[in-house]
Amino acid sequence: MKRPVFILISMIVLFSATGIIYYFSDRENNQPPAIARTNTVPDTSRIVPDTIFIGESIAEIHPPVSGLDIKYRSFRIKGNKAHHLRLPSGTTIDIPAYAFMDKNGKTINNLLTLKYREFHDAADIFVSGIPMEIKLGDKIRHLSTAGMFDIRAENQEGELTLSKGKKLNVTMASQTRGNGYDAYYFAENREGWIKTGKSKILSDPELLQIRKVKADISEEMINIPLGEEFFIMNYLSLLDVMFQDDWTEINKNRKNGAVEAKAKAYGFQWYDVWSGDMVEFGGNQYPASMMLWKYHEGVRFPDWASVENSGVKVIPTQERGVYHLVINSGERLFDVYAEAVMPLKSLFVYPAEFWKNNYEEAMANILNEELRIQNEAKILRSLEVFQMGIHNFDKILKEEGALIAKASFSFPQNMKNGFQPGVVYYIPEDNRSVIKLPKTDWESVALLPGRKGRILSVLPDQSIGFYSGNRYKNIPFDSIRRLSEPAYEFVMEATPRKATALVDVKELLGL
User: Is residue 445 a contact partner of residue 475, using CB atoms and an 8 Å limit?
Assistant: First the structure.
C-alpha cells in the first residue's frame, strides 16, 4: 500500500550560519562546569544489527547531488586530555579525557581526529540527503528541525566510538525558540530516527548579551549614483533580490528594460561571474554573489571572465571587510582585492533617490537589522551524546487538513530532454525540513492549502526544476477537493541556476 507524503509549512525562520570550528582550550582531565542537560541515552535494545526496518528512504542517507554535501570540520585532539571546542556561532563541544576507543575496545590515548558538521536549514538538509521521515506506529511522519549535527571520531586505524561510561556534551546555538522539541538519534541503515529525550534550552550570558556590531563596511560615506568602482557579480543575483526568489517573475523580467533602468539608477556595474563562497557583513554570513562590492584597486574583472561565466574564489584578508577575489580558468589567472560593501537585499530596501538624500538613516537601519538577525540565533540547546553520529532537535510536523491527491510533475522540454526524475523535494516555507517525494508516492500525496511551499528537482545536468511558493499558495485546493479523483499537475519551471554549490540552493530558497 502506498503511503501518503505529508507537506506542511510553519512560520519560524531558521538561522543559517556556518563557521570554522576552532580549538578553544585544552584542559587535562578537567571537566567543564556542570550545567543542566538532557539525558539522551538511545534505546539501543531496539536497534537490531543488519536489519532495515523501514526501507532506504528513511533509514539511509543519499545526497541528491554529488559533491554538495556539508563538509566536516576536522581537527586533531589528544585522546588522554579533556577539550573544550567552540564554534563562532556559539556551539560548544566538551570532550572528557579518555573518551574514545577503537573497534577492539582499546582506549585511545594519542592523537585522533574529531569531525563535526551542523545543519541549520532546508538547504543544508537537502544537500546532505539526510531523511526527515520517521515511522510512528504504522504511519510515516516528518520532522521539523531546530538544528542538527553530525559528530564522529577516527584515527589511522579507522572509526572510533565512545568508551564505556563516557559522553560528550554538545550545546548547540539555535534560533528556534520553544520547548516543544525532542532529541533524536539517527540509526543509519537500521531504524532511522529514534527519539532519545527532550530538548533542553539553556541560557548563555555570552551569547544572549547584546553586542555592538562592527559593520564590515568602509568608514567613508557612499554616494548615489555609485561610481564604476562598485559592482555586483551577476545580474541574476540582482533579480533574485528584486523579485524575492520568485522564478516566474525572474524569468519574465530578465530582459525587462524598466527593471534594468531601475538597477542602473544605483550606478553600479555588473558582470556574468559567480561564487559559491560566503562573506561576513555585520556579524552575519551572506553568499558572495549576493553582495555589493567595491574595487580596492584600479584593476577590474577582465572581459573574458564574463564570457566564460567564470567562478570566483573569495578569500578573506586580515583587513576588515576586504577579500581577495581570484579567477582561475585553468589557462588564465586573474586576481583583485575588493570590499564587501553591503548585501544587495539591504541596498534595495530603499530606492536610489532615498539613499541619495538619507544615507545616514538608511545605513543605520541596515546595521540595526543586522544586529537583530545576529542576536536572534542565541538559543542554546544542550545534549548529552552517548553515540557518535547524527543528532537532531526536532518536533513532528502537524498534518491536519491535508488534501490527498494524485500528483504529477512536468518539466520544460528544453530542460529535461526526455528525462523524468524519480524524486522531487518539497521545502516548507519555514525552511526547517525537506520532504522527499519519490515517484512511487505520487499517486497519493498530501497537500496543505494556503501555504507557500516550494518544490524542486535536480536533473542529470544539475539544472534545477522549481515550483515557487507564490504559485503553490495559489493552487485551487477547494476545486481539487471536489473532484471524484483529486489530482494536480505541478508544471515545473527551469531556473537559470544549476546546483553546483550549496550557495546555489540557498539562494534559490532565499536563505
Answer: no
Please state, in angstroms and rounded to a whole number, the distance separating the CA atoms of residues 202 and 84.
17
On whether the CB atoms of residues 294 and 337 are closer than 8 A, the answer is no
The pLDDT value recorded for residue 57 is: 54
Decide: helix, strand or coil at residue 85.
strand
The cell for 388 is 557518535
Round the average pLDDT of the chain to a whole number and report it.
Answer: 77
Q: pLDDT by residue (tens digit) across 35-51?
A: 233 333 333 332 222 22
Question: What does the alpha-carbon distance between residue 216 and residue 230 come to, in Å, rounded to a whole number?
Answer: 16
- Burial grade of 307 (CB within 10 A; 0-12, 13-18, 19 or more): exposed
- pTM check: above 0.85: no
C-alpha 71/C-alpha 226 separation (Å) is 38
Q: What's the rounded Cα separation, in Å, for the pair 390 and 189? A: 13
| DSSP secondary structure letters along 234-256 | BHHHHHHHHTTT-HHHHHHTTT-
Biggest CA–CA distance in the chain, Å, is: 71
Contact 21, 116 (CB under 8 A): yes
Q: How far apart are CA 239 and CA 253, in angstroms?
A: 8
Closest CA to 400 of 2, 6, 3, 1: 6
Kindly report, residue by residue over 415-456, the tens digit of the pLDDT: 666 667 788 898 887 788 888 888 888 998 888 776 778 898
Residues 329, 324: Cα–Cα separation, whole Å: 16
SS (H, E, C) 102-154: CCCCCECCCEEEEEEEEECCHHHHHHHCCCCEEEECCEEEEEEEEEEEEEEEE
CA distance 191 to 184: 12
Q: H or E segment at 281?
A: strand 278-281
pLDDT score of 100: 96
Q: Where are the domains of the chain?
A: 5-210+376-396, 230-374, 403-509
d(CA 372, CA 283): 11
- pLDDT category at 261 given cuts 50, 70, 90 is confident
> Average pLDDT of 358-384?
72
Q: What is the dihedral of CA 31, 32, 37, 43, to 10 degrees?
A: -40
User: Hey, what's the cell of 285?
Assistant: 554570513
Half-sphere exposure of 480 (CA within 13 A, CB side): 19
CB 443 within 8 A of CB 4: no
Of 22, 160, 146, the closest CA to residue 86 belongs to 22
Tell me the per-residue pLDDT of 150-203, one tens digit each, with 9 for 90 and over.
999 999 899 999 999 999 999 888 877 777 788 999 988 778 888 888 777 775
Tell me: the pLDDT tens digits for 104-156?
Answer: 999 999 999 999 999 988 889 989 889 998 888 888 888 888 889 999 999 98
Q: Can you tell me the distance from the alpha carbon of 182 to that of 177, in angstroms, rounded to the nearest whole number?
A: 13
Q: Read off φ and ψ for residue 434, nearest 5 degrees.
A: -135, 125
